[in-house]
Hints:
disordered N terminus, AcetylCoA_trans_1-like, transmembrane helix, two-stranded antiparallel ribbon, 4 strands, MFS_trans_sf, acetyl-CoA transmembrane transporter activity, mainly alpha
Amino acid sequence: MSLTKRKRSHEKEELIENGDPVFNQSNIKGDELNIAVLLFLYTLQGIPLGLAGAVPMLLQNRGITYTQQAEFSFVNWPFSVKLLWAPIVDALFWPKFGRRKTWLVPVQYLIGIGMILMSTCITDWLGSEEKAPSMMILTVTFLLLNFLAATQDIAVDGWALTMLKRCNVGHASTCNTVGQTAGFFLGYVLFLALESPYFCNKYLRTVPEETGLVTLASFLLFWGWVFIVTTTFIAIFKHEANDTVNTKESQTKGMKDIVNAYKQLYTIVKLPAVRTLTLVLFTAKLGFCASDAVSGLKLVEAGVPREDLALLAVPLVPVQIIMPVILAKHTTGPAPLSLWLRAFPLRLLVGPLAAILVALTPTLLSDSGPSYSYLFILMSLYVFHQTCLYCMFVAVMAFFAKVSDPAVGGTYMTLLNTVSNLGTNWPNTLALWAIDHLTFKSCSGSTLIDNTCASPLETEECKSNGGTCNIRIDGFYIEVVICLIAGFLWLQWGRKTISRIQRLPSSSWQINRNR
C-alpha cells in the first residue's frame, strides 16, 4: 500500500572516476562545504517530487475521477525515463561556465520561475466547490516541473563526481539519498501537515481556524524564491574545475559522446539476458498496483486525513537507512533475487489486507478523526508493506550491481533502473485508470432508472434531477482480486525465469563478448 509516492534514488552504482574504482579511505576534511552544497541541491530536487505526491491527496475529495488521477500520475514518469536525455546533458556544455552549471543554473532558474508563476494560479487550478479542478493544466505544469527536476538530477549526479575529492566520491550517493528524502519530506509530509486545518488546529494552534498555516500557492512562492536566490549564489560563487580547454574540440567530442552513449545502450539491450530481465522487471509489479497506487487515495476518500497518511512515512526513515545493512547477508551471495522472490508473495497479500481496511474504515473512524488503535492498525500494515517493498528493492539493486558489465557499469545500472522504474509507473497509471471502468454506480432518488452515472454527463444529469450517484460495486475491490490472481500467476512463471537468469554466467551479461 503505497501511501507516499516517494521517489527513491535508484542509481546506486559503484562510483568510478577515470575508469578506476575509488579505494582510498574517505576523509571529508576540506570537502565539508561541497558535501553541504550537494545535500542542498538534492534537497531542492526533492521539493517538486514531494509536491507532485501531495497534489493527488489534495484533489481526492474535490470530485475528480480516478481516470483523472491516472492522467496526473504521468508527472512521476520523467525520473523514470531521464536516461533518454541524460547523454545530451552529460555531453553538451559551455566550458567557460562549467560542464554541470551549464545545465544546473538555467534549469533551477526555470524551476524557480515556474513555481512563482504557478503560485499565482494554482488555487484556481485546484478548483472549488463550484468549479472542477483544471486537471490538464495541473498535469502539464507538474510534468514540466518534474522534467526540469530530473534534468537537474542528471547534472548534480555528474557534478558530484568532480566536486568531491577522489577519496570522498562515495559520499555522493549518501548526499543523493539523504537530500532527496529530506526534500520529499518537505514537499509532501510537511506541506500536507501545514496545509491541513485539522492538523494545525490539533497540534499547532490554541485558537482553531478554517485554514492551515500554508497554502499550495504560498508554499510554491516560497520555494520558487529559494530556488532563484540559491541558484544565483551557486552561479556566482561556486566554480567548477575547467577541465576542457578547447571549446571546439570539446563540442565535437560531446557530439561523439552522445552517439556513443546511445550505441552503448542499444548494445546492452540486445543481450538476451538483459531482454529477459527487462521482461521480468516490466511485468513483475502488475500484481501490486492496486495497493500501491489506489489504496492511499481510497483511505482518504473513506475519511482518513491525508496528513495522517503522509506522517506514516516519518517513523520508517531510520528503518530504511539500516535495512540495507540488515539485508546485506541475504543479497551479497550468488543469488540476491532469492530474497526478492521470498518477499513477492508477502507483498501480494498487502492488496487484500488494504482492501479490508478500506472497507472497514468508515465504521472505525470517529467524528474526531482516527483513533490511536486505528492508526496502529494502519501503521502496522504500512510497515509490513514497506518492509516487503524494501526487501525487493535492496535485492534487485544488488542483482543489478552483480550482473552489470564493469566496462559500462554506470550506463548498465542506469538502464536497468530505468526499466525497473517504468515497471512501477505503468501498472500504477493503469490501476488508477481502471478504477472508474470497474466501478458500477446507480442513480438513486430520481426518475432516471436507467442512469448508471457511468460518465460525467450521466452524473450531472442524475444530480440535476435531484438524484445521487451511489456506488453499487467499487472497482477497487475488483481490481485487488484481479491483481492478486495476476500476481500469483506471474509468480509461477517469474520464479522459474528468475532462477534461470541468476544461474547465467557473467559472460551472458557482458557486452564485449557478445559483439
